[in-house]
Fold this protein.
Amino acid sequence: MRKWENFLHPPVSKFPLVEPGEPNLMREFFPFVEPPYITFEGVSVPPCMPAEIYVTDTTFRDGQQARPPYSVQQIVDLFTLLHELGGPNGVIRQSEFFLYTKKDREAVERVQGLGFAYPEVTGWIRAHPKDFQLVKEMGLKETGILTSISDYHIFKKMGLSSRRDAIDKYMEVVKSAADTGLKAIRCHFEDITRADFWGAVVPFAQTLMEFSKESGLFIKIRLCDTLGFGLPWPHAALPRSIPKIVYYLMAYAGIPSDRLEIHSHNDFHLVTANTVAAWVYGAMYANTTILGIGERTGNCPLTGALIHYVGLKGTLNGVNLRKVTEIAEYIEKEGRLTIPPWQPLVGRHFNTTQAGIHADGLLKFEEVYNPFDTATLLGRPPKVAITDKSGVAGIARWIMENCGLEVSKSDPGVQKIYEEITAQYDEGRVTSFSEQEMLALVKRHLPEVYAQYAGRTKGA
């Protein structure tokens, strides 16, 4: 589908670096003694989604900063699943790795040995020229480097006296990357949603693009919403509006969409919305992790990004969503992590209803209470759990799901099961009914149904 280009953009201008004299901590937005304030302005920006968008992964970098490290074999197994999930067209385009320890490097060598075109293996290093030797030794085409951009980081963390000092320091490292012979780097604009957009972010981004043109080094900019301050609305004010950050970098600063990647955190529950907004307003890449596991509150969940990728593109484009279920099962079994049962798309109860009125809707027409064909796409048919809220409709639905036989909710046997269940809750029960308990009730009150079920399972 050809991109619609009827918007008039202002000419790209050169923005000078602004020195504040002292750190600008933007207390009008970030009072610290209270949650950050949400502010709007009377200016919006239009959607400008690129013709191609991709997911990138940082499970083996940021994702390992919030859980016990994966073993090398677990990394190989999960990387293989990522490859299968992203499909032959490489919707999951890249996967990012640490390079510092012997184990890190062994993991990179093992996944490289798999021979997959996608995800491409990329690195992450500190902003030190000597670290590029690690990248070169591992044979990587691209690495990320940390280039913190807010005054909080430049003045308060790094202890520098000016923004110019920070950018000069970063450019030394970037030039070292070119001298080392690397083909591509990502500059991680840490804490961009607390940074002076016009006075620091844009000038540095334009400096990088100028050097890219001169040197031939392909430079991406990773927009790091480090503390999750980003907002997904085009009318929100800078520095927090993700749509404005992305759109203005493209339209006013001249940064191409294939140089822009969003990396969000979930401190304020907007991580997926911010990630999708970055795509819609011009960024080509969205950085994610398996299950959203990452530093502190985590990153954008890979599954959530993929679901919205399909929604935006109107096609699976080779994405194999059944691998989502395999990944979740692997993480629980091998990673020794219990996934919250209500977690969207991956929790064991994400499409399980306990409400009788919902079960009644499922019985009549699945689409009433199931958002898409979870059985076909995820290998996860909708289910009901039996509690005091399930009603006769929930019991009939449970029998259909678990015994493979349709019964009417008005069947006398179903009514008797309902009465037994209700009696137990009246006596103080607080837990849901197990499969074994439900089968015992079916055997007692619907013996013909149970006999067919037992015969079929015995034959299997």
